[in-house]
Every structure is written in structure tokens, then in C-alpha cells.
Design a protein that fits this description.
- With 258 residues, the chain is an alpha/beta fold.
- It has one domain: Metallo-beta-lactamase, Chain A.
- 19% of the residues lie in helices and 20% in strands.
- Strands 1-2-3-4-5-6-7 form a seven-stranded mixed beta sheet, with no helix packed on it. A five-stranded mixed beta sheet has the order 8-9-10-11-12, with no helix packed on it.
- 40% of the residues are buried.
- The structure holds zinc ion (ZN).
């Protein structure tokens, strides 16, 4: 496999204070959206990618003021660099996974996933290549040795909590279903939602051992009533309220049809 020559993280500015970062060398299946929101008193980092390369070092210029690193849920593609930050926020249900060595799981090779897990990904519509990286972060990097470093959150969140950046604030929405600890961050003022993997514009996953379909339906019923203008998901491009309602209704109908 070739070695990456450019920056491991790509980035784009999507608004006055919002950036999206991502890992171009990672297969879309495991390539999450990393969101950065610059606040007046502190900044917010929503998810941290695979942890193959230090996000803290690579995006150091963004982190000039205190930065709250938040996990929308504990899955490996969202929490790889969480341990690199001194302030770590996650939902209370994610704590046992995040804080226990080996509990996060994940892999960079198709053949390294348990058969049932792989089957669930394929059934949902993902096509996983054998190698989830198309370039190595550095010569000698061993994808087979990949493991997310565990770390305990420094602030444990629950539904209704507020993450305050000084000039803007996000309400924590507990959105279980994809995983027990899935959360969204909702800014009432700008009608912006960071939704993690609770909803994005692509195949949604509810067949993991930690998924809960009934809870997921309730989450979708809640999300479809939210007065949002823009949804920034854990994967795939952002979208507006109309598409949100379509995605929520589509999921609910798919469950009813099972
Ligand atoms: Zn994900």
C-alpha cells in the first residue's frame, strides 16, 4: 500500500464558525465527519476520526483556545483521537465502552470484523473493501495492529444538558438506537443539529449487538419534529429539514415493513 504524501485530514469551512474535517484516505464506510465549532470562550470538536494520525497535532491551528472534544457515540470511527484531548465529553451510556481497554472495537480490514458484524454492514448496503485505508499514514504502519486507545470522559452528558461555548450553546439530545449512547447537539438559535450516526443521508445501521430498533424509531419520531435548518451528520453530506423528515419517515417505514 502506498504511503500518504499529503495532509491526512482534509478540511473545509462550512460557515462562519464551523469547519468539517475528514480523512480522505479512509473508505467512506469508516470515514466520519469531524466537526469543529469555534466559540467565543471555548471551541467544540464533534467526533475525532479513526485515530490513525493525531488529530490534535494535525489541526493544532484550530485548537488555540480550550476545545471540548465530544463523542457523538463510542464507535471506533468517531473516537480514535478522543484520548488526545484533555476535555472529553460523552453520553453516560458510552462510558463503559470508552473507558475499558478493548471495548470500543473496530478494525481497518474487512476480514478483521466478526462475521455477524460484517454481514450487518453488507446487508445495510455498504461495500467494504478488504483494506479500509487506501494509503498508509506513514511507512511501516500496520493496519492489523489498529486499536482505539480507551479513555474516560471528563464530562458525562445526559439528555437536556447544555454545552456552552460562550456565544452559542448546544442542547444535548439523547438519540439511542444506532448505539445506546448516541447523542445529537442542537443549537436552538441557529437551528443547527449535529446528529452523529443517529441520522445521516446514507444507509443507517441498527443491526449491531448494541443497537435498539424500538429506541431508534422513537429517536426518529423525535428528530422529525425538531425545527432545524441544517443537519450535520456523522457521515455523508449535510442536509435540511425536509430531507431530515424524509430520512426519519423512511426509517420508521422500513421498520414497519419488516
Ligand atoms: Zn459512524
Amino acid at each position: 500500500m502506498k504511503v500518504s504524501t499529503g495532509d491526512w485530514f482534509a478540511r473545509e469551512r462550512v460557515g462562519d464558525v464551523i469547519w468539517r474535517l475528514w480523512e480522505p484516505s479512509v473508505d467512506p464506510f469508516a470515514r466520519c465527519n469531524i466537526w469543529f465549532v469555534r466559540g467565543r470562550d471555548r471551541s467544540l470538536l464533534v467526533d475525532t476520526g479513526l485515530g490513525v494520525v493525531s488529530l490534535h497535532d494535525a489541526a493544532r491551528d484550530l485548537f488555540e483556545q480550550p476545545t471540548l472534544a465530544l463523542a457523538t457515540h463510542y464507535h471506533f470511527d468517531h473516537t480514535g483521537s478522543l484520548h488526545e484531548f484533555s476535555e472529553r465529553l460523552a453520553h453516560k451510556s458510552g462510558v463503559p465502552y470508552l473507558a475499558t481497554p478493548g471495548a470500543i472495537g473496530g478494525a481497518l480490514r474487512r476480514s478483521a470484523f466478526p462475521a455477524a458484524v460484517l454481514d450487518m454492514y453488507l446487508t445495510a448496503g455498504y461495500e467494504l473493501p478488504e483494506e479500509l485505508l487506501d494509503a498508509l499514514p506513514e511507512a511501516g504502519y500496520d493496519p492489523a495492529a489498529y486499536e482505539v486507545q480507551s479513555c474516560a470522559p471528563t464530562r458525562v452528558l445526559d439528555d437536556g444538558d447544555v454545552v456552552d461555548l460562550g456565544d452559542r450553546a448546544f442542547e444535548v439530545l439523547h438519540l439511542p438506537g444506532h448505539s445506546p449512547d448516541s447523542i445529537g447537539l442542537y443549537d436552538h438559535e441557529s437551528r443547527t443539529l449535529f446528529s452523529g450516526d443517529a441520522v445521516y443521508d446514507g444507509p443507517l445501521l441498527d443491526g449491531s449487538s448494541d443497537s435498539d430498533v424500538d429506541a431508534y424509531v422513537r429517536t426518529m419520531e423525535r428528530l422529525r419534529e425538531l425545527p432545524v435548518d441544517v443537519v450535520h451528520g456523522g457521515h455523508e453530506p449535510s442536509f435540511g429539514r425536509e430531507r431530515l423528515v424524509e430520512l426519519c419517515d423512511g426509517y420508521i417505514e422500513s421498520v414497519q415493513a419488516r
